[in-house]
Amino acid sequence: MNDEAIAAAIRNRDQQAIHTVITRYSRLLWTVAGAVLRPAGTAEDVEECVADVFLYLWQHPDRYDPSRGKLKSWLAMVARSQAVDRYRELIKQSALPLEEAALSGCPGAAEHLMEAETREALRRAVDGLEEPGREILVRRYCCGQKPKEIALALDLQVKQVDNHLYRAKRKLREALSL
């Protein structure tokens, strides 16, 4: 069966056609979804994502247009989109609220070397930062999150995260040099 015949059969609710698609493309979709979800997801997350792709095809067969490309490519694109959405959900679920990420609980040798006055001055300076710069700074340097993870968790572009970090660090330097 070619892509057009499969699409037409699925539109007509032919269950054999969807089974053919599942058999033919499951491995590819596992690879695509797994590549996106690997850092944060489990095998169950990948499985759910792949199942969602086939369900999406079954529920919306008209969204696939054979004249615009192969079914294989379209399914891979849908799988990637589903996986990115799932990854963002997982990151948001695992993110700690800012209130729980206290500066005093951050690991590192630098904290042991700081005197009490310096730590308090730093804490006041960080508390004086505006959002989202404060949260981004805490996530980056206290929680150890990468800019890409922060961007996903806060629904920002990586460049925006970098810019907020730059401005927050500049303000901290100014506040601590007074």
User: How many strands?
Assistant: 0
Percent of residues in helical segments? over 70%
State the CATH topology of the largest domain.
Rna Polymerase Sigma Factor, Chain: A
- Helix- and strand-based class? mainly alpha
Whole-number count of domains:
2
Q: Whole-number radius of gyration?
A: 23 Å
Brief characterization of the structure:
The chain has helices at 3-11, 15-37, 43-59, 71-94, 109-113, 116-127, 133-141, 147-154, 158-177.
Outline the structure in words.
Helices cover 71% and strands 0% of the residues. It is an all-alpha fold. The chain has two domains: 3-94, Orthogonal Bundle (Rna Polymerase Sigma Factor, Chain: A); 98-177, Arc Repressor Mutant, subunit A (Orthogonal Bundle). Helix 1 (3-11) packs across helix 2 (15-37) and helix 4 packs across helix 8. The longest helix is centred in the middle third of the chain and has 24 residues, at 71-94. The model is unreliable at 109-113 (pLDDT under 50).
